[in-house]
Amino acid sequence: MEGDYIARRLEISGIVQGVGFRPFVYRLAAETGIKGEVANTSSGVSVIIEGGRCEIDSFCSSILHGPPLAQITGMSIHNETVKGYDSFCIAGSRKNSDRSTLISPDISVCGDCIREMSNPDDRRHNYPFINCTNCGPRYSIIADLPYDRPNTSMKGFRMCNECQKEFDDPANRRFHAQPNACPRCGPGIKLYDNNSEVPGDAIEAAASLLKKGHIIALKGIGGFHLAVDAENSRAVMLLRQRKHREERPFALMSYSLKDIQRFAFATPEGEALLKSAQRPVVILEKRNPNSIAQGVSPSNNTLGVMLPYTPLHYLLLRHGFTALVMTSANISNEPIVISNEEAFKRLAGIADYFLVHDRDIYNRSDDSVIRPVAGAARFIRRSRGYVPTPVFLRQDVPRMLACGAELKNTFCLTKGNKAFLSQHIGDLENAPTYDFFTSSIEQMKKLLDITPDIIVCDQHPNYLSSTYAQSQQGIRKVHVQHHHAHIVSCMAENTLEGKIIGLAFDGLGYGTDGAMWGGEVLIADERSFIRKAHLAYAPMPGGAVAIREPWRMAISYLYRTFGRDLFGLDLPLLKEIDEKRLNIIIQTITNKVNTPNTSSLGRLFDGIAAIIGLRNTVSYEGQAAMELETICKDTRESYDYKWSNGETFNVLLEPIISGVVQDVTKGADPSIISRKFHNTLITLFTEICEEVRTETGLNRVAMSGGVFQNAIILKGLIQALSEKGFHVFTHRLVPTNDGGICLGQAVIAAQMHWDR
């Protein structure tokens, strides 16, 4: 019957470009006998379909189930007039006023492409840029939307006849694969020393040089890596020396899971992360003994490991390496290098050779880092493979730019119910990183078509992110307290509303009283917070210098507890630091000269590490706390603790410090002292939460802040609080450290906007 032949228009939003969605729709139409067309638009994908009512219904139902890399966030169905299409086709892309399509992150090369690359009879045999609709670069090569070749860094590579045939063939895996290429028409790779091109097979030569102990700068998807043979101790230490990276662990890359299992333990959760399309660096426990150079991850019982995610990685690693160090190619604390010219200039003093290609990187992106803890994947750094996939909020919010914090910076742009966190920017402490921050903001605003009405920043007046926000003209500015943002970021990703108990534990954050907070128990919602409990204040001798020199915090805690009697204590620390220097520190504390007060739990970790003789100075942020966690041995013992009652609980430090000192002077094993300290914190804050629940009736606890990267604290508090009947919420979608704080800033600012 004529009435049964109908037409519909489907408007589909989400990650539906660059993931083979149009080819999927084309094949689905062929299977169901539907006629019409599909096109990319600025807001997603538009599909016009004509056919029988039953076939249309079947088509609309099936379209929600694929392809595997797509993520549909919305689909509207509209009645259309039958126009009499005689086939189904992929139409040219269309622009419209609502640019809201989601951009696919970069993903690992797929198994089909690896098999083709390994086949001597395939025309892409050993081609380091093989890809298809189901894999390869996405976000890193996009300059604009819609996701078509002219809007990517592949625009300068015209497809040969064979590649064009694949691109045009609906039955081919490369149907409308925008980065499609082969050795005849696509990007190429070359090896250089510091002066000229090295003749011969570039990858074969690079593998040989790595085996001889050389350092190679290797261009990947989101930027350059610096690579050395991970089993070559001399090469590893040479890389540390040249990169000025004293002790921070290096990331590793191995050809296969079997190789990884030779030097690390991979749980099922870890294996799943390693093999995922995102290919993050996964933090795994070391297997001892192992063949990896000790200098890769000194004073640490874990290794950060990833599997290859580009064809080039596979081609290089198949030359018999157990693992290669693959660390971001930069000078310490600067952004990762992305262009060939920049690499030759900035890395000349580090790399011996440069393995480069001629496909430009438009969007810089470091490797993501994840640690599986307490049954979930916990982001330490959210970047390549995950950005710019949004975090979905429980309701629409105004268009905002949240500028994040200073360390581990990310920023956030919002649109509707979506929060788009940027890739990892880094520590905003130098001009190159600040330039990366500002240019990335402009690029994401362009790609996502977001012009913010509100700009949000931390209350700290001296953060570069706050300075940037203040410099923007003609836009409403909102300042948000650091730890409030931490807790609300956890609430936001768990779609929570209403008041909650928040545990905000980190290194430092600017408090409303001008002190440096970091050991906070808050009663918070999206509007406001009350500071219900915190660690007692202790002075930070030398200010920021105390972060790099934990012994200063140790003296601060010791002087607070023992006064000048501390000189009579039998502590290794007091024998290692010159008495004159100790007296100067005590004098600055007494006179309150450059000694800001802090309630930071991160600084308490530093102080304990120094008191037990573990670490007096650090070469990277959080090192002392990481090593304190590393040495822990099992014990159920803990130290005494108490807090002063009142409107705000003040957690006294003297009982804990006294207990630690007593154990040190008795010769107790530092690993036992460390575990007792961890146990004390878990029991202490569980009891405080119980006290707050008694007063308020609140039964939900959100935990956020860099201290929760500590697996013992995270698992211990989840278990202890759950056993007491609390509902505990933690981070899974964004980092618990300052890399996730921009999300909380945005949600708080939205609530403040509505409350005006």
From TrEMBL:
Annotated YrdC-like domain ranges read 200-385
Claim: Zinc-finger is one of the keywords in the record: yes
Q: Which residues form the active site?
A: R22, N40
A GO BP entry: protein maturation
Location of the Acylphosphatase-like domain:
7-92
Q: Which PROSITE patterns match?
A: ACYLPHOSPHATASE_1 (PS00150), ACYLPHOSPHATASE_3 (PS51160), YRDC (PS51163)
> In the Enzyme Commission scheme, what number(s) does this protein have?
6.2.-.-
Q: What class of enzyme is it?
A: ligase
Q: Which GO terms describe its molecular function?
A: acylphosphatase activity; carboxyl- or carbamoyltransferase activity; double-stranded RNA binding; ligase activity; zinc ion binding
Pathway per the UniProt entry: Protein modification; [NiFe] hydrogenase maturation
Highest taxon, organism lineage: Bacteria
Its keywords, alphabetically, are: Hydrolase, Ligase, Metal-binding, Transferase, Zinc, Zinc-finger
Tell me, what's a Pfam family for it?
Acylphosphatase
**According to its UniProt record, which reaction does this protein catalyse?**
an acyl phosphate + H2O = a carboxylate + phosphate + H(+); C-terminal L-cysteinyl-[HypE protein] + carbamoyl phosphate + ATP + H2O = C-terminal S-carboxamide-L-cysteinyl-[HypE protein] + AMP + phosphate + diphosphate + H(+)
The entry sums up its family as follows: Belongs to the carbamoyltransferase HypF family.
Annotated protein name in UniProt = Carbamoyltransferase
Q: Which species is the source of this protein?
A: uncultured Desulfobacterium sp
